[in-house]
Design a protein that fits this description.
This protein is mainly alpha-helical and 451 residues long. It has helices spanning 10-21, 24-36, 40-68, 72-79, 85-118, 127-130, 133-139, 142-160, 162-190, 196-203, 212-225, 232-237, 246-274, 285-298, 302-339, 343-363, 378-405, 408-415, 426-450. The protein is globular and about 65 Å long. Bound molecules: phenylalanine. Phenylalanine binds next to helix 1, helix 2, helix 5, helix 11 and helix 15.
């Protein structure tokens, strides 16, 4: 079997984890959800949910991962031998591969849009050539499939490099650039004439919009955004060296993730308002609305908006890639360690699986749009299966495992590096893991059932 690798120092851990956390969830999902759900008021609830509910799950996963030094299935086999916990491991190996399958379809869209931006297709053109492009593109057969294929291939290419030379190197190189790029776009966006409305929209808390549903969607957003419940943080956690501080890794990742989401909001919403477009554009915001905005801005100084468009879609692509590798690695670590496969073979198998399921998801916008599962298209069905059910279930199980199955002293040993660090914070973290996070997840479940 190939030797197990580890991440380098503290910064490498945080950048790799932040790479997993920061993705389409921040750039594509957060701005419109925040906008729809009460702006600043939603953001406050989201930040609270990230720290009180999501972070304890994050800690649970890193505790299991680092203590076992194994992939998700191996961890359960080692720490609870001969029990049904193994099935939780299996579930959390399969679910990220399903998430990756449809995630890479959207990742593929960003590949296509980057090409278009590079070809200056979004600037200085008649607006009817842009309108309808998105729906024409996603419902066609070959183009989105090709884009999805490119995205999976890029992901696989990074994974082939291994933990240190692939995942760590790529995250370390791209994450600082990503922050820089999003700040550049946010500043540009805020400086546009008429941008004020967008800033108000994001920040002015409208508490009248806060309801049980808002709280559930804030939790769901925090969950998805921190990559929880699908074994990715567990697997990355297994690459954290024994001397690192788990509290610092978790808090650092959460702060990076939240800041990036808010920056993405500032990159997008002011531009939307400046262009006089209704912010309720929903999930189509990034891919349908923004090209219009780039084009409109380009009417005055075309090359600036062309450059902004390129930077913007490049940012989305890179952010999506650093998340995609974290999902990919879960399956690869499992195949390598449990099935004795080489990294190459494991990468090929995971890639093929995700490519095939992703193919169906991609086609479900076009030729397969008539196929419905529980009244939903294949893409929507898999998305709701994972986001609403498998992810919270995985998260719940990880907190129950750490809070109730492991002994308190084992948990304390792992979290405090044998009582050297974080000794004062531990009782609070343990309380959150044992009681608060599981109750929060059950509330998400119930609201998914009832709302
Ligand atoms: N957190 C990633 C995002 O915000 C998505 C993700 C989910 C990544 C689950 C890994 C696992 O886009």
């Amino acid at each position: 079997m190939e030797k197990r690798e580890n991440f380098g120092g503290r910064l490498s851990v945080i950048l790799a984890m932040a790479g997993s956390a920061i993705g389409l969830g921040n750039i594509w999902r957060f701005p419109y959800v925040a906008g729809e759900q009460g702006g600043g008021a939603f953001i406050i609830v989201y930040i609270l949910a990230s720290f009180i509910l999501a972070l304890p799950i994050f800690f649970s996963e890193t505790i299991i991962g680092r203590r076992s030094g194994s992939n998700a299935v191996g961890a359960m086999k080692k720490m609870a031998p001969g029990t049904r916990w193994k099935w939780i491991g299996i579930m959390t190996v399969i679910s990220p591969m399903i998430v990756l399958s449809y995630y890479s379809v959207v990742g593929g869209w960003s590949v296509e849009y980057l090409f278009k931006a590079l070809a200056f297709d979004f600037t200085g053109v008649p607006s009817d050539s842009i309108s309808g492009f998105f729906s024409r593109f996603i419902s066609s057969t070959w183009e989105p499939v090709l884009a999805h294929t490119i995205f999976i291939a890029l992901t696989a290419g990074i994974i082939l490099g291994g933990v240190k030379k692939g995942i760590e190197k790529f995250s370390k190189l791209t994450m600082p650039i990503l922050f820089l790029l999003i700040v550049v776009i946010a500043v540009y966006s805020i400086c546009l004439p008429g941008a004020r409305g967008g800033v108000d929209y994001l920040l002015k808390p409208d508490f009248s919009k806060i309801s049980a549903g808002t709280i559930a969607s804030a939790m769901g957003q925090a969950f998805f955004s921190l990559s929880l419940g699908v074994g990715t943080i567990l697997t990355y956690g297994s690459y954290i060296r024994k001397q690192e501080n788990l509290m610092v890794s978790g808090v650092g990742t959460a702060v990076a993730d939240i800041s990036f989401a808010i920056l993405a909001g500032f990159a997008i919403m002011p531009a939307v308002f400046a262009a006089g477009i209704q912010p309720g554009a929903g999930p189509g915001l990034v891919f349908e609305t923004l090209p219009f905005i780039f084009n409109k801005m380009g009417a005055r100084i075309p090359w600036i908006s062309a450059v902004v468009a390129i930077i913007f879609f490049l940012t989305i692509l890179v952010a999506a890639l650093t998340s995609a590798i974290s999902m990919f690695e879960v399956g690869v670590a499992y195949l390598m360690e449990e099935k004795g496969k080489s990294r190459k073979k494991a990468t090929l198998q995971v890639g093929l699986f995700c490519w095939v399921i992703g193919l169906l998801c991609s086609l479900s916008f076009g030729p397969l749009s008539g196929v419905h599962i529980f009244g939903k298209s294949i893409f929507d069905f898999l998305d709701s299966l994972c986001s609403n059910w498998l992810m919270p279930l995985g998260g719940l199980m990880f907190t129950l495992f750490v809070g109730w199955k492991m002994s308190r002293s084992d948990v304390e040993d792992e979290f405090t590096n044998h009582r050297k660090l974080n000794r004062r914070g531990f009782p609070l973290v343990y309380f959150l893991i044992r009681y608060i996070a599981p109750v929060g997840i059950v509330i998400v479940f119930l609201s998914n059932l009832l709302l």
